[in-house]
Amino acid sequence: MNLKQIPVQRYNPEMIAKPVGNYSHVTKIDRNAELYVFSGQIGIDQDNHIPADFNEQVTNTMNNIVAILSSQQLTPDHVIKINIWATEEIDWDHFYEKWNAVFGPTSPSMTVAYIQGLGLPELKIELDVWAAG
Predict the structure, then answer these.
(1) Prediction pTM value
(2) In-domain check, residue 24
(3) Which has fewest Cβ within 10 Å: 55, 68, 74, 92?
(4) DSSP state letter for 107
(5) Residues facing residue 83 across a β-bridge
């Protein structure tokens, strides 16, 4: 597979507070990059099963993100922003274990929101992924 060049740079300016989580305050995209917007990725597995367990949904969601990026010859390094929508409290220890395994030490920009519901009643988390390649 031919991976696309990574036109993404991430920064945390020193004149503002450090991020309160594993994300970058600033993500810069090179001028000639293509923008990729993916539908929200959910915790469904390859057999179309949505587990009841929140952490299993997180694991499946991260796997789905890697797979959808790969389908476009992109890697997690191409991700510029992720919006996280959760219907219950996130287990940050588990979440960051999976997040760090995918994104490494320099994570994309992130927004987190707790909401009442998602598109299907059994969904507990959805990640909205933007990338550049």
Answers:
(1) 0.90
(2) yes
(3) 92
(4) P
(5) 111, 128
